[in-house]
């Protein structure tokens, strides 16, 4: 490109040359990573192969389609199969030492049970069954696809991305809708994948409705994309500011990464346009405006408190490590509600999110502690509390209470 005429820099030919150069550079980095694999073995080698074959460079240069890439993929399948066989043998030996284990149901029956649980949105139990099936057969396309769908339904982005990429290797035709969703969540173009999807696929309808909204009004933040339809520029800017700050504070307090905190904010100035979107998409928001399984929120109003509550509700629903009281109270705290002393932090830690939400006294107490999320220092204190409580709960409580927020 250094010798390409500067006056032709914006031409199609220049773009093709730049793309070819990027592919060759990506291939060179893949070859270097392949050489670095020499001498590795066991689980470390499998992980290194995963990093290479799943990397952006490998996708750019289609490394998996090269002879070396195909040999490496075959080796990975062999190593995984051997590891799975070792686990099965170890379990068999353990069962023999403890006595005869209860026989498991046939694979087809357990798969059908997992799919029923998934359809009922009992995602945690469905995921447990899919993981059990994958422990027995790491190359079960049905189980991998099931885990990817469940992760999308629960909005667990990192698991969703990993399992969708696995599904694209095992059953690419069946995974096209999931791959389209992954592209949309990451801010890429999902249309090429959506065109290949089966028209009757349920998740296709919602994604098509989201795409019909057009390009985002703003997306210069890693976490939030704004789709403001009919709002005045000043109102859209104010909404954007509220959403980005709420996402930053909530993700820090809940211990979520930036990738796991992605959210699309949909705002409609015209109530009729909002209702038309529900009809096209088949989606139904929660009371706070969360569109479960889409990584998106559609608050009923565009004021700051409503937007903060919606973003907080969406991110709290993804926080596996956060205690139930924080999951229950964080949306209200972000929205500016005030708390009241009615229960100790130790008492709240013994309650689930549902129990806290069902008790006005517990919820007000939880909001009082969660109100720290409104400042950067307080959100950081909550984040440290979430990380510490699994290992040293008493110390985590003490430090949170002494944070002074």
Annotation keywords:
405 residues; mainly alpha; Serine Threonine Protein Phosphatase 5, Tetratricopeptide repeat; 3 domains; four-stranded mixed sheet; 4 strands; 4% strand; globular
Task: Write up what this structure looks like.
- The chain is mostly helical and 405 residues long.
- The chain folds into three domains: 6-98, no CATH class; 107-211, Tetratricopeptide repeat domain (Serine Threonine Protein Phosphatase 5, Tetratricopeptide repeat, Alpha Horseshoe); 224-401.
- 63% of the residues lie in helices and 4% in strands.
- The chain contains 20 helices and four strands.
- α2 (42-53) crosses α4 and α12 (233-254) runs parallel beside α19.
- The termini are far apart.
Brief overview:
Helices cover 63% and strands 4% of the residues. The longest helix has 32 residues. The protein has 20 helices and 4 strands.
Class per helix and strand makeup:
mainly alpha
Biggest sheet strand order reads 1-2-4-3
User: What is the CA-atom radius of gyration, in angstroms?
Assistant: 24 Å
> Strand fraction band?
under 5%
Name the overall outline. Answer: globular
Could you state the oligomeric state of the chains shown?
single chain
Average pLDDT works out at 88
Any idea how many domains? 3
Contiguous uncertain segments of 5+ residues: none
SSE ordering: HHHHHHHHHHHEHEHEEHHHHHHH
Helix run count: 20
Percentage of residues assigned to helices: 55-70%
Distance between the termini: 55 Å
The largest pleated sheet is described as: 4 strands, mixed
Task: Report the strand count.
Answer: 4
